[in-house]
Amino acid sequence: MRVPLRDVAAVAAGVLAPFAAALVLMPLRTSVTHTNLALLLVVVVVAVSAFGNRFAGALAALSAAAWFDFFHTEPYGSFHIEDRADVETAVLLLAVGLIVSQLAAHARTMRQAAVIDATHLERLHGTTRLARAGTSSTDDVVRRVRHELVAVLELRACRFEYGTLIGRPPRLDPDGTVKVDGWIWDLERQGWPEGETELRAIVLGRYQGRFLLTPEPGSAPPPLEARLVAADLAAQAAAALDEDRVSAGPRP
User: What pLDDT is stored for residue 135 in this prediction?
Assistant: First the structure.
């Protein structure tokens, strides 16, 4: 499973940013109090945490405490501390850095969740508006849902099949679970199953077709919220197809 590039960069920043900051602050170690230097390093920890994640923030706090000890406490160039006040400052730097990093990472997570929720809501509303506009064909709605599914589930491809069911591929159910041969698949631990996964378009018990989802190889599985949005999008397509079928009436 691939690790997102942002997370890799955040971990690297967690190690290197406090080191670089401590190095840059070296000329000030005799003119600025150690407490103020430690506070400046906390700012670096917060910046890394806001950019990255909790692990990167914790790593930055550990790195900041270590390099504060190495560059700014006597004997310089050593991880040994002689002065008791410097020991307390280093311990406080570590503790405050860990606490603040977790708070910053939590705030970033909440902000991202709010943005994602708003994006999902707009996807659903946009699809609903298209389906109810009366100027778009069912093919347009299906095409729109395919596009949205690729974005929501971060897929490599998505296609739609009309008609009867053929075969028994893995299935994404409306409750967000994935089933393989009737058994619930541990998506979070095992990732996507091999091959395509079907998402059926059903409304009022009437089967309209299915979306066949092709994930990116090695990609992380989408969260439950994204899978539920995907199921709602498929239901929108099913409703449009069913309405079109009813409007057309029985075939002669």
Answer: 59
